[in-house]
Design a protein that fits this description.
about 350 residues, alpha/beta, Rossmann fold, 2 domains, five-stranded parallel beta sheet, binds zinc ion
């Protein structure tokens, strides 16, 4: 197992093996790449490997150190992640970690501090962390995981060795989906193609009803239903989603306030609103990805008749076969425009209504 269990990240693993083997471990590593491709799993394998007593450039999974890391009770392997729904890593969280690195590693090896979603460190946290990187504690390596390295201070990035992670292969994602669900190969490959190489997104597609909603809208438009009615149905669905998100965020904010009776302020309404808006926007983007995939598929299939090029291959029988290439290209442009409007915070109900009129044409 060990590094071998990480799929499709050969370049990253080769670099990490080299680092462990030469015993030249930098004080900062920056794992960059899309979410759901194995950054966290690799960080834990790396933590095992640097401290493994029996293997030179990997983890044996047998020795005491490896076992402790696997069970999450190795005293020198620290994992920090944004805890609350606000998903911010605050300066206090970083101070806690730094404090724990003041001593020599308890188990005599190397201390590994993994910071998940490192871009979620707020400015104060990043500045505090930067000071530590400038004078790093001995025998300690910080492993920062991020999908958005540009949100980190350039001075943090330059002090870390970057390791890039890419999308997973179609077959890798499909195999995992088949193993976890009772899916046919066709369904699993469709989900894998739509996931764009992220197992987390693929699991999300399996779990949530997003895809069913998009397929429903697309079919209703194809059957000639009034786009106004279709857009109203979509808006109602988005409103429900927004309500659910808002409730979840508020619940978590209340819990956070209860756990922190010393905190002088109650839940910050403005912060909650902006967080909800951000999460809803993220949902809308995921929908647009699915709309884009559908019309892209109809266009690609209409032109090539090659099922291998199609993402939604489990819905081939629903494809329009008599497509107008120019019109379909305009639909795809319209989806991209909608993306930009959502990014600019325009009224989503209106921009989706306009989009549905275009898609119906
Ligand atoms: Zn070991």
């Amino acid at each position: 197992m060990s590094f071998n269990r990480i799929k499709d990240q050969h370049v990253a693993i080769k670099l990490l093996r080299g680092i462990v083997c030469a015993d030249r471990v930098p004080s900062g590593l920056l794992f960059c790449g899309p979410y759901g491709v194995g950054k966290r799993a690799t960080a834990l394998e790396f933590a095992k490997a640097v401290n493994c007593r029996d293997s030179k450039d990997d983890a044996c999974d047998e020795c005491l150190s490896c076992r402790k890391t696997m069970h999450g009770n190795h005293a020198d392997v620290i994992v920090v992640r944004p805890v609350s729904k606000s998903r911010v890593i605050k300066v206090e969280n970083i101070e806690d970690v730094i404090e724990r690195t003041m001593f020599r590693p308890f188990e005599g090896g190397r201390r590994v501090c993994v910071i998940e979603d490192a871009d979620r460190m707020n400015e104060a946290a990043q500045n505090h962390f930067l000071k530590t990187l400038e004078e790093p504690p001995s025998q300690t390596v910080f492993v920062l995981l991020t999908e958005w390295p540009r949100l980190l201070l350039p001075t943090i990035r330059s002090r870390c060795q970057s390791i890039r992670f890419g999308a997973l292969k179609l077959g890798t994602v499909a195999d995992i989906i088949i193993r976890e669900n009772e899916f046919t190969e066709e369904q699993a490959y469709a989900i894998a193609a739509l996931s764009r190489g992220s197992i987390s997104r693929a699991r999300d597609l399996v779990k949530k009803e997003r895809r069913a909603v998009v397929l429903d809208m697309v079919h209703r438009l194809a059957l000639g239903e009034d786009p106004l009615l279709v857009s109203e149905a979509f808006a109602a669905h988005i409103q429900d989603t927004e309500k659910a998100i808002e409730q979840a965020v508020k619940k978590e904010a209340r819990q956070e306030a209860d756990n922190d009776p010393a905190g002088e302020s109650g839940p910050d309404t403005e912060a909650i609103e902006s967080l909800v808006a951000g999460l809803v926007r993220g949902e809308l983007f995921e929908y647009l990805v699915l709309f884009d995939a559908w019309y892209r598929d109809e266009l690609v299939f209409g032109v090539s008749r090659d099922t291998q090029l199609v993402y939604n291959r489990d819905y081939l029988q629903k494809f329009k076969t008599d497509i107008n290439v120019d019109k379909h290209a305009a639909k795809l442009d319209g989806i991209r425009e909608t993306w930009k409007y959502i990014e600019r915070n325009l009224n989503s109900q209106r921009v989706f209504r306009d989009l549905f009129f275009l898609l119906a044409s």
